[in-house]
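Final report, Chapter 2: Outcomes

The project's central promise was a pipeline that accepts a single protein chain and returns its three-dimensional structure in a standardized token representation, suitable for archiving and comparison. That pipeline is now operational. To close this chapter, we reproduce one record exactly as it appears in the project archive, with the input sequence first and the structure output second.
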Amino acid sequence: MSRNAKINTLLVAIVAALAVLPLALGLGDHKEEPFTGADGEAETAITEIAPDYEPWFSPLYEPPSGEVESALFALQAALGAGVLAYYFGLRKGRRQGEARAVAGEAPAAGSAGLSDTAGPGA
């Protein structure tokens, strides 16, 4: 097994452990909602510290349920991952194209066999 494969396997094992250990060890069992996000925790802390606190802004859109909110968050994450994947793929493609140009390889398959002297009717 190569060094990169070992590192990748170790990283996947660490991510899996981070996902499974809190559930297996029962972390958060003492709470009403054990794995709420940071927003919920902050709201609870603010309410305890200053019960008459008024927020400066209100949300533009309030989802009707937690499931819809989770779905929108997942959609946002998927779109972000797609944008990043497109960007890195584009960079890799450009790098490969530059390497081919430097190496003097023929252009892509779409223009193979065409000469620069042939006109539109030739």
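Archive annotation: The first helix runs from residue 3 to 24.
This record, like all others produced under the grant, will remain available to the consortium after the project formally closes.
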